[in-house]
Amino acid sequence: SAVISQKPSRDICQRGTSLTIQCQVDSQVTMMFWYRQQPGQSLTLIATANQGSEATYESGFVIDKFPISRPNLTFSTLTVSNMSPEDSSIYLCSVEGWGWGGYTFGSGTRLTVV
Amino acid sequence: AQTVTQSQPEMSVQEAETVTLSCTYDTSESNYYLFWYKQPPSRQMILVIRQEAYKQQNATENRFSVNFQKAAKSFSLKISDSQLGDTAMYFCAFRQTGANSKLTFGKGITLSVRP
Questions:
Q1: Nearest CA-CA distance, residue A30 and chain B, Å
Q2: Of A59, A107, B6, B108, most Cβ neighbours within 10 A?
Q3: How far apart are the C-alpha atoms of B83 and A43, rounded to whole Å?
Q4: Contacts of A100 in chain B (CB under 8 A)
Q5: Which one of A3, A42, A93 would you mutate to disrupt binding with B, by most B Cβ within 10 Å of its Cβ?
Q6: B11 pLDDT tier (thresholds 50, 70, 90)
Q7: pLDDT tens, position by position, B20-78
Q8: Three-state DSSP class for residue B18
Q9: CB neighbours of residue B42 within 10 Å
Q10: In chain A, whose CA is at the least distance from the CA of B33?
Q11: Rounded to whole angstroms, what are the CA distances from B2 to A38, A110, B48?
């Protein structure tokens, strides 16, 4: 299955600033998925990123707050904009694994906003 | 819309014993996938086991097995011979068939294995 390199692994940011999270996959994939996991909670899908088109956002998430880049079939970025303490979460990217129906995840970015 | 329910927030088990984690789901689809993912403190999401709905045989992976009851929409995970390294959050997840379908997760359960 695919291997995903996600950066940074953690960051502490000032409120009002932005952070860009990167995910690099070792193989070409059609879709990449971005999740948020608030402290002690489950994973919530933020958006689905398809190469060459705008990302599709889930209810409650907007492009101005979470702009996504998908310049090619192996790379994507998620930016958390104008951060507030409520954005403190783990952010994970994910891709579909070929042939077995499941999904592989990056190692996550732990974001703390102060 | 699909929903996944994990009603037990926490469980504890003695090392070497067996524990069962519960999961129910709701869907109108006839074919789909179900998963159990493990998330240790390192926060890496690790696939534990998967089940395809059209397969009647319960999936097994070493010490991990599932009890898949399609009619009851139940998908429980049994961990045998529990080990300290099994301590983690466990998430039940659902996805429809078809490329690039999203995963829907349950709330998760925190499993602690006691030495």
A1: 8
A2: B108
A3: 25
A4: 50
A5: A42
A6: very high
A7: 999 999 999 888 999 999 999 888 999 999 999 998 899 999 999 999 999 999 999 99
A8: coil
A9: 11
A10: A101
A11: 21, 28, 21
